[in-house]
Amino acid sequence: MLARLAENLFWAGRYAERADDTARLVDVTYHSLLGTADADEERSWEELLDVLHQTAAYAERDQAMVPQQVIRFLITDRDNPGSVVSSIGHARQNVRSVREHVSTEVWEAINAIELELQGRDIAADVDERPYELLSLVKQRSQTIAGAITETMPRDDGWRFLILGRMLERAEMTCRLLSVRLGQLLARSATPAFHDWLTVLKSASALEAYRKSYRTSMEPSHVVEFLLLSPEFPRSVFFALTSAEHQLVRLSPDSDQTWPRRRVGRLRSELEFSSVDELLAADLYEFLDHVTEGVHGVAEAVAATYFRHGPAGMLHLIEAS
Amino acid sequence: MRFDIRYRTVFSYEQPVVESQNVLRACPASDQHQQVLHYDVRTTPSSRVFSYFDHWGTRVDAFGVRLPHDHLEVEATASVETLPRQPMTASPSREDLLDDWFRDQHLEFLEKSPHANGGPQVAAEAREATKDVGDDVVGMILALHRHIATGFEYRPGATYVGVDVEEVFAARAGVCQDFAHAVIAMARALSIPARYVSGYLFATDDAEGADPDVDEVEVSTHAWVEFAVPYGGWWALDPTNRQEGSVRHIKIGHGRDYDDVAPLRGVYLGPAEHDLDVSVTIRRTAQQQQQQ
Amino acid sequence: MGEPLFSGYDVGQFFDEVMAADGQVRPHYRAVVDRLRALSPEELARRESLRNAIFRSQGITFTVYGEQEGVERTFPMDLVPRVIPADEWAMLEGGLVQRVTALNRFLEDLYVGEQAAIRDGIVPRWLVTSGDGYQREAFGIQVPHGARALVAGIDLVRDDAGIYRVLEDNLRNPSGISYVLENRAAMTRVLPRVFARHEVLPVDHYGAMLLRALRSVAPPAAGDQPTVVVLTPGVFNSAYFEHAFLARQMGVELVEGADLVVDEHVVSMRTTRGLRRVDVIYRRIDDDFLDPVVLRADSSLGVPGLLSALRSGNVTVANAIGNGVADDKAFYAFVPDLIRYYLGEEPVLPNVETYLLWDADQRAEVLDRLHELVVKPVTASGGYGMLIGPDADESEIEAFRKQITDDPRGYIAQEVVQLSRHPTLVGDRLAGRHVDLRPFVISGETVEVVPGGLTRVALREGSLVVNSSQGGGSKDTWVLADSGSEG
């Protein structure tokens, strides 16, 4: 398929997922902080900004580290290219330019969330009902995901879209884990229980988790579930496996493409890891390592499939 | 007179660029005043050059470099023999300019063109400059030529490529392209067909145009004008140097104005701006010197 | 006629496509009219809402694409089809093939031939060299079979005597074929029984027909299965829907300029599996924007190096570059002479009577009759700067008199044509509305005409303007397989 279309679909997938995951990250931070001390709270928001690589951008705003401000910055601020609203805008732009290659249902789902956000009193949402706002984003994201699954043929275009989504998800789930990891591991049993619950909820993982682990809230179980579960669709392992699957289908004649080698290596690292080993070593470092690995896969995808794509600014030459 | 010409342009980029596509018009024409003995174009990085003759009869060399490159060098080499020109002997009158057949044959050089689109003031200046010569077309052309050659100042930097001819008249200064466009605009205003000529001049420098006492010069590409004289054919005059076309004028091609015969035009994709270095070397070959 | 549908229907002083002057339904319309009469107003309303639903479901594409650049208008289809009997179509088809053949011959003569028509004084040289569509960069570019106007749209009108006349030739990027196909698809669903009673020539093979023509102009080196693409300016272009539609109909890639790259004078598209050679480009981008190296330098819609690839014979672009010279308003007047000159035949389809204002005699006559004629500037398009004599006041007429005298080459004048009318659904009644017809003519190895074409209808009463931008609609246009067909 045309490299431009593939690239647009890949990024549409990434941005749609990023919007969803950013909302989840804000959600987990916000709700786990209810009833905690101010100092803790400030540190938590700082950590969140850090995980999202938004510390410097937020500092430029010269705003206090209070929930409303940070939430607004991360959810609704159109001047922040990393906000949920901006991510949806980017996803929409990418889909728009490949309109012929996505179903009407997907296109409408993306438009719907954009229109819905435009129609709301965002300031009031942020101040009074952040939960509602964050749920809305998550729900609409699932509508998009559903439309993608139900209405698009399984062609290369679909594969690039899913590939983008899965790589973004792998990265963002790593971030979700690391955002609260330090505090969670350090805490005593009872509040930790509550916090882990929130983490799982934000990943829409609580019910699935309970099926596997019942009422246990051992950190190792939660980490294992979100990082290594082969069954849960939001786990890092699952996302990488799915990405690998798309890459196999994209280049059926060659099992040695660069992106496949990279994703395969990363996936098998997770596959053959045990959670106890990971917890005994530096889990932060491991999560960083996985995140970097995902960047490497994305780079390899671009170099392999998009390198022939449209190539930059047009300049004129005139010589006498 | 025989000359070896080397036209060379180097584009350098701060960062690699891709997909450069260019057209070059540097090959001397073959006509009744000159004969091309040899012509060759090479590029670095190398590329397949596709050549054709355009609507005006000028040879065009098209080439492109797709892969990343941080410089692009084009070198065209030519050997050409020029012949002495006959003096203009026709003496048509103003009425001959209005002959339907004559006008029809020269239509494209009578209409305004983007760089030679003078308005009523240019027309008035043309009438004023020729008011003393009566109906003699050759006299009119010479008067226009003298008017620009003596009334305009040769001053590089006074104008820019693509400047509007009205601005040239306002500045009353410019380089060879501007002198050519100015005299073309005036001639067309008087119904005298005039066309823009791009070429090389073997001379000490662009402003003086004198015959050098050396055999090799470094110059720029040059521009002059040809006028259609009823019963007399095309007549070349070089307003920048106040002279007629000569054995030292080596023509590349002609058109309505600069745009039709621009030496090199192209595009590339990439982040970087470019630096440009153009050089033209003309060598009068020794063998021909002895014959002179 | 007491039935509600036709109650109060007035033919007026116009040629009515359905009703003869004596109020009788013309034979080729009888079955359609009978069927429509049998529908109750409620039933008709139901069909209309079904039509709207069908168009809305496709209209999503229309409206969504345009949403960021003003209002994208849909092109409503009237439920009453236009019917052309077989013998009439045979005449039209012959005339269209003849006209487009002559126009292609002229374009070949001009750009790769010896310009014989100019040399022999059939067309004035100045008219060619001063034309906006004249492209000096097109000289020497060969097109297989000389199929320069590969897709031509010839606008026809019918005068008050029912005579078909050519109003305008469109040889650059005529659009509208997607409506022809969409209208037919909708019609067979909305009024299946009306449709079923006729043998109507199909139009749905258009995609195959166009693809065959495009493949036939591929460079010889391309082999048996040349790669064809549709080149669009992009999603923001108002005709993007049609570009995507045609690519889908032909099963070929829809590309933008940036998807194509030229390497060693060969055009390729950029795919996820590397560069893939392209042999034929059906472009829906204007000439000037095709290649920034030699045409408009500020164009980012085109493909740098395309023209050298074209000249090298490594790719074919359709329609060819420079066709615009032969479809402007002044050139139009010379087409009948070109038919005689190149083909040695009398034109089957007459022009609207046209006067050339640079000719002193014709100018004198026109200046006397300005109040009864239409005056059009040679270069402007879209009805801009026109004088419609019968509707103009003295000051407008005087203004045009001065403009014509100052610049006689800038204008032509034409007799006013009373466009024919066609019963069209207005509320729950039929009313006469003016129509024209744009058939599409495809040139490849042979010249073929898509049966029928796009019938445009001026929905406002009395209006002669059928353009979609000005409140026009369209009709499904049926060509009957057999003249005797009465259902």
- Look at the structure and give the mean pLDDT of chain B: 93
Distance between the termini of chain A: 41 Å
| Mean pLDDT across residues of chain A | 86
Helix content of chain A: over 70%
Number of helices of chain A: 16
Bulk shape of chain A: globular
Q: What helical percentage do the residues of chain B reach?
A: 10-25%
Order of helices and strands of chain B: EEEEEHHHHEHEHEEEEEEHEEH
Assembly level: heterotrimer
Q: What is the 3D shape of chain B?
A: globular
Q: From the alpha-carbon coordinates, what is the Rg of chain A to the nearest angstrom?
A: 20 Å
Please describe the structure with a list of short key phrases separated by commas or semicolons:
A: 320 residues, mainly alpha, 75% helix, globular, C: 487 residues, five-stranded mixed β-sheet, four-stranded antiparallel β-sheet, 21% strand
Please give a structural write-up.
The complex is a heterotrimer of chains A (320), B (292) and C (487). With 320 residues, chain A is mostly helical. Chain A contains 16 helices and 1 strand. Chain A is globular, with a radius of gyration of 20 Å. Chain B is an alpha+beta fold and 292 residues long. Chain B is 23% helix and 40% strand. In chain B, strands 1, 2, 3, 4, 5, 9, 14 and 15 form an 8-stranded antiparallel β-sheet that branches. In chain B, strands 12-11-10-8-13 form a 5-stranded antiparallel β-sheet. In chain B, strands 6-7 form a two-stranded parallel ribbon. By secondary structure, chain C is α+β, with helices and mostly antiparallel strands. Chain C contains 14 helices and 20 strands. Chain C has helices at residues 30-38, 41-66, 86-111, 116-119, 125-129, 177-190, 192-196, 206-216, 240-250, 306-311, 329-332, 335-343, 360-368, 394-406, and strands at 77-84, 151-158, 164-170, 228-232, 253-256, 260-263, 266-271, 274-277, 280-283, 316-318, 354-356, 373-377, 387-388, 411-415, 421-426, 429-438, 440-443, 447-449, 454-458, 472-479. In chain C, the strands form 5 sheets. Chain C has a 5-stranded mixed β-sheet. Chain C is globular, with a radius of gyration of 23 Å. Mean pLDDT of chain C is 88; it is low at 59-73. The interface between A and C is medium-sized, with 23 and 26 residues.
